[in-house]
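Researcher: Checking consistency across runs. Here is C2H2-type domain-containing protein again:
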Amino acid sequence: MHRPGIEPGAPAWQASILPLNQKQTVPGKVMETCKYCDYPTQNKGGLIVHEMTHTGEKEFRCDWKGCNYRSIQKYCVKQHKFTRTKEKPFSCEHCNYTSA
């Protein structure tokens, strides 16, 4: 079966990927819409983060002395702190590569 946007003869895994303009929905779950644009989602947390991109609000901040880094997501601040501490907690099980 040919899907628009997928080249004929492309690998089978590509056919399972939704194009960016199509959102997968869960039946029976309410679709929420951004109050600033037409962005639709069924994920309330994702909608809150999305709306912060419109307001410029950055709730989370780095607590490193003298650092002014702020972010919409707590995870981004956690990743940012690795640049301060030089900590690389993730490592490859096959080689010596480590990363933050």
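Researcher: Does this match what you'd expect to see?
Model: One thing to look at in this run: Strands lie at 32-33, 40-41, 60-61, 70-71, 90-91, 98-99.
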